[in-house]
Amino acid sequence: MELDPDEVSMYRTLAGAVVPRPIAWVSTTSPDGVDNLAPYSFFNVAAVDPPVVMFAPVDDADSPEGLKDTPRNVRETGEFVVNVVTESVAAAMNETAATLPAGESEFDRADVTRADSRRVAAPRVAESPVAFECSLSEMVDVGGSTMVLGEVEWVHLDDEVTTDGKLDVRKLDAVGRLSGSFYATTDDRFSMERPP
Q1: What is the pLDDT of the chain when averaged over all its residues?
Q2: Beta pairing class for 21-22 and 24-29
Q3: Residue among 126, 162, 183, 150 nearest 77 (CA)
Q4: DSSP 8-state symbol, 175
Q5: Are 168 and 118 in contact (CB under 8 A)?
Q6: What is the 3-state secondary structure (H, E, C) of 113-156?
Q7: Which residue, among 154, 35, 157, 55, has the nearest Cα to 96 in the 3D structure?
Q8: pLDDT band with cut points at 50, 70 and 90 for residue 57
Q9: Residue 19 DSSP one-character state
Q10: Against a cut of 0.85, is the pTM above it?
């Protein structure tokens, strides 16, 4: 099979082939004080020094400015928190993908606990073992999406996912997005030594 992106929507092919994708469970607070929480699987690390993460929400065709609540809140407040999704919070993360009326918070819908952040106003998810507090670095229009780049200002690590004071990937049961309703866990791991 050969596909021409000018003739066929590429969403299913890209989302199905670029797997598993990490999930940014992004928490923000609107200027009106409403806490928002939404998952984004177009997410990754963009740089290490300074530490920068990125997520890229698809634009909202129903919004006059084209932005969903999360990127709009980030633009207006200049901050957000990326919470890592693990198996224990996967169902709650899925609940926060629902479209809610303005003024309602996904934190309440999914019954997850708000925890105070240290450097930003937006709360983090207390049940998530890893959270990155971020300040907005840049927002870039990329086709029908808006890529949000944020500099990591503070990191919360649950001691249960560390060994000798460092994050231990063997202890972090992160969940990745596949395609459609499919997700993957990181339980099945293998190791290879990098060649010199």
Answers
A1: 95
A2: unpaired
A3: 150
A4: E
A5: no
A6: CEECCCCCCCCEECCCCEEEEEEEEEEEEECCEEEEEEEEEEEE
A7: 35
A8: very high
A9: -
A10: yes
Contacts of 150 (CB under 8 A, 6+ apart): 52, 53, 54, 74, 79, 80, 82, 132, 134, 135, 136, 137
Could you tell me if 37 and 70 are in contact, meaning their C-beta atoms sit under 8 angstroms apart?
Answer: no
The candidate with the shortest Cα–Cα distance to 138, out of 25, 62, 68, 52, is: 52
Q: Which of 76, 75, 25, 30 is nearest to 53 (CA)?
A: 25
Per-residue pLDDT at 158 exceeds 90: yes
Whether the predicted pLDDT of 113 surpasses 90: yes
User: What's the pLDDT tens digit per position in 117-132?
Assistant: 999 999 999 999 999 9
What sign results for the dihedral spanned by CA atoms 134, 140, 141, 142? negative
In this prediction, residue 189 has a pLDDT band, given cuts at 50, 70 and 90, of confident
